[in-house]
Amino acid sequence: MHDSDPLMNVSLTRRQFLKTATFAAGVLLAGCGPKGVPGARVTLTQWYHQYGEPGAQEAVQRYAREYTKLHPDIAVRVVWIPGDYSTKLGTALLTRNGPDVFESSLSLPMVTAGEVVPLDDLFTPEIRADFNPKDLALNSVGGKIYGVKMFDDTAALYYRKSILEKSGVEPPGTMDALIEAVKVLNKAERKSLFVGNDGGVGSLLTIVPWSAGSDFLVDGRVVFSNPRTAAAYEKLLELNATNALLMGAPTDWYDPSAFTQGLAAMQWTGLWAYPAIRKALGDDFGVLPWPALDAQGAPATFLGGWTAMVNAQSSQIEEAKKYVKWLWIDRTDLQKDWCLSYGFHVPCRASVALTADALRAPAAADAVHNLSVYGHALPPQWNSAMGTALTDAATHILKEGRPAAESLAVAAHKCEVVLRRMQE
Amino acid sequence: MKPRSQQFWSQIPRYALLTVLATLFVLPFYLIVRSALMTDAEITAPGWVWFPATPHWENFRTLFDDPDNQMRTGLINSAVIAVVTLVFQTLFSSMAGYALARIPARGRDFVFGLIVATLMIPGAVTFVPAFAVMAFLGGVNTQWGVIAPGLFSAFSIFLFRQFYLRFPVEIEEAGRLDGLGYFGVYWRLLLPNSTSIMTALGVLTFIGSWNSFLWPLVIGQDPSSWTVQVVLSTFLTAQTMHLAQLFAAVAVAVLPLVAVFLVMQRSIVEGAKFSGGKE
Amino acid sequence: MAITTPIVKKTPAVRSRPRPGATLAFWAFVAPSLIGLLVFTIVPIVWGFLLSLSHAQNTIHPGHFVGLRNYADMLTDEAFLRSLVTMVLYSLFIVPLTWAMSLGLALLVDKAGWGRSFWRTVFFIPSAVSYVVASLIWRISLFNGLSFGFMNHLLAPFGIHPIAWIGTVDPPWYWLVLVTLRLWLQVGFYMIIFIAGLQEIPKTLYEAAAVDGASPGWPMLRYITLPQLRNTSISVLMLNLIGAFQAFDEFYNILGGGGQSAGNASLARPPLVYLYSTALGDQDFGRGAAGAFILTALICAVTLIPGKLFGLGRSEK
After folding, report:
1. Which residue among B156, B258, C30, C61 is the one 20 to 30 A from A43 at the CA level?
2. CA–CA distance, C39 with C47 (Å, rounded to integer)
3. Alpha helices of C125-278 — where are they, by DSSP H?
4. pLDDT tens across A358-396, in order?
5. A44: part of which helix (H) or strand (E)?
6. Cβ partners under 8 Å of residue C30, min gap 6
7. Distance between CA atoms of A99 and C34, rounded to whole angstroms?
8. B36: closest CA of chain C, how far (Å)
9. pLDDT per residue over B61-106, tens digit each?
10. Chain C residues with beta carbon closer than 8 angstroms to that of B114
């Protein structure tokens, strides 16, 4: 109400009040209409989390437009979601206003609660054989497949060759070697290593125990409360104690800015960041898997990526399934474009991976190789409540110096309760 | 009485302290303006620059041109939500406040008791069940879902009731002699005479609505239903960060409110006193 | 805006003779608010209570009843108990500090002969800023962990290397970040309430004390100003306490909060952030609702018990 007088007795007449009220009601109603696209019989809503690479959003919108060109009665509304995607998606799936098609990773409660539809009929035997078997397993519950894996993601320890050479440091193969290396490389104006603003609690939560040979959830049992996991987190604490880690950067580990801007000599970040790093640093970098904890451990990285799924509450399930099949099964050319033209992702289909020449560039090939040899993933039974419990334990160990065995036992107990409840 | 000049000199430490504190309080605003007019490279430069040599006003244009950025939608959503909340919360609360203060009817004490009881429930805590109900009603991901619960405020009803209790009975009686019914008294007499409290509480409602975060965060899943605060918050968790754009967005979100605040300050002070129980 | 006990006092409403149509008019006037409060406050409470007794994983529908198991789960959940401890510790910091600072500012500004309204405006204006905006400024600019952060820049001449204000636990600098943020945002608001309180103190009290030989300054403050501001102080403390118990925005935005956000969120997670992550992050609405009821009970206890003890709600006059 811009016509208000600053003084106490404001000249707000009833007529104005009524007018404002009517206007406000009109605006309110206008903002609530269904968001359809004119001319199309069906509008599918498709959700993606925000990919940081330039051009990625335009690309998925282009794919959607191409589908509409081929099927003029079907429009696809692409929604690009920055921020805490998994919470937003999970919440939207509880309601009638959720997306028809979305990317996610499968968790058991999604199946139990009937939020996603099985997609087995999209996979012919040949197609099934073409997919990375690990990906098929991760998206299956009770013998049914609930999603089409779009691509595989992984991360790597990127290092600046020139900086390591100048200091006479070899690329580290164990955690102890890494700790020695960060001590040598550290400088006031340029830290040695960036693993996230929380000192690696988030980015290395599962990676360091894997590098110790431990695991989390195997055959429906919680197995992480063991001396190897404890040793791994304690070693990460030792790494933090060197004071050579970069902390307080504007963006987190998943964004390569800290590395490309020279704030750190090494960074743990995704393969998706490869093109940006290549562009900024040329040939002056190499990649490693996360180093093994010790001789009994093995290097580790994650097998990640995203999976296309169809909302069981959608009123257009058949159309949604057809679209998923078209985009993530039939159109290998678009899949290849998506994997190689923006951020780097590894195609999860053997036939597409064969022609992905860009991934054979120096360092990129190493990362792809490391993924196939050292890649780990969490099963669909693992959920975010367990993630929170484990994160809390890691924080207590890493940040508060609490005894590792005890914190892990507390977290394992909570995970067991969550797991039991989940299977009800 | 001490001479004026002496009094002034004895006040020097007070003014010194006030100046220091005032500088601290203004500092964040300075940081917003400064950084909003710089490039990313200038912001992250190692040496501190107090003010950019050439202000980069184009940051604001890129902010609104960037398709990745939801700021434009957020501003529109927030404005609609704040205006609708302001108008209807004021209307509904003053109606209920009037009835509770001035219309004798069976059940009035019960209704008042109910409203006081809802006052005791800390609002933010109920967001989990409130979300469940809103999801059931189909309001998740919609603008009305963000707005609706904010239209009804037990606190505001309570304050209006207090205000109308003190409204002179004589004016109401005079209106009755002129043949006005309850509605007429409210519409013709009380409403025009309660602009001060309406403005005071209305501005606070507007600011509160514009600035609220938890409920819009819970309800807005799809970016098309995000408010300005939710958009700003996602800057922090975004995959990449454009610092200059971030500060430009902060400036755009804050400066209109600061302007409203300065212009309406006297009303806001009244509103603050009112809500703090000092009226 | 939350509510304090002092104003929740039934004042007898004017009892005029009912006129024809009074009952109808009454219900017509209260109907919108009543229906609204019913749908958006009362129904959620009932629904939430049923949810809290249900196993509600990835669903908002109660039905799979499990008794009090969710309450037992929450009360034995270390993370939830820690969040309650965090809330109490945070309140112990922020409430007395806000009280002292807003009272101090009120005294400074109220007695300033020159530019009173100017000073008042300067301190009051941060109240227009949202917690989200303040969190952005505090995290990205003021307390940025790199050398271009303002605080680190100020410290650089003393040979102090850039401090990671948010990730550091020893000492826990993030508390400095969180506490200064809330102080900046709310001190001005409470200062206004204190100034109003100060202006209600009769001048004659001070004059009488001066005649009795009391010197201005501390004795006047101790024996006149503070006792006269007793109810204002209680009201400020309560509003503030309820606000602190419901802290969410700055913790979520500075330390991180959602289901998958990791790391720093575990350092200091107030109850609302934990409930958000349990209900909306983990999609466990049963435990989320149970936690909400436990927290509501706590807040009601903390705000009502002192009222009973100190006779809150006694009229100031």
Report:
1. C61
2. 11
3. 131-136, 150-155, 173-200, 203-211, 218-220, 226-228, 230-245, 249-255, 271-276
4. 999 999 999 999 999 999 999 999 998 999 999 999 999
5. strand A42-49
6. B95, B96, B99, B100, B111
7. 34
8. 11
9. 988 887 777 899 999 999 999 999 999 999 999 999 999 999 988 8
10. 34, 37
CA distance A78 to B56: 32
DSSP code for C171:
S
Q: Which of A9, A83, A94 sits opposite B237 (nearest CB)?
A: A83
On the question of pLDDT at C7 being above 50, the answer is: no
Provide the β-strand partners of residue B95.
none
ipTM, two decimals: 0.92
Burial class of residue C85 in the structure, from the number of CB atoms within 10 Å of its CB (0-12 exposed, 13-18 middle, 19+ buried): exposed
Nearest alpha carbon to residue C261 among B222, A83, B140 = A83
Chains near B (3 or more Cβ pairs under 8 Å): A, C
Q: Does C121 touch chain A (CB under 8 A)?
A: no
A113 at C interface, C-beta within 8 A: yes
Closest CA in chain C for residue B23: C122
Q: Please tell me the distance from the alpha carbon of residue A420 to that of residue A416, in angstroms, as a whole number.
A: 6
Task: Tell whether pTM > 0.80.
Answer: yes
Question: What is the longest distance spanned by two Cα atoms in chain A?
Answer: 82
Distance, CA of C312 to CA of C317 (rounded, Å): 13
Instruction: Please state, as a whole number, how many other Cβ atoms lie within 10 Å of the Cβ of residue B56.
Output: 17
Interface test with B, best of A4, A23, A102, A254 (most B CBs within 10 A): A4
Cβ contact (<8 Å) for B250 and C137?
Answer: yes
Q: Supply the DSSP symbol for C140.
A: I
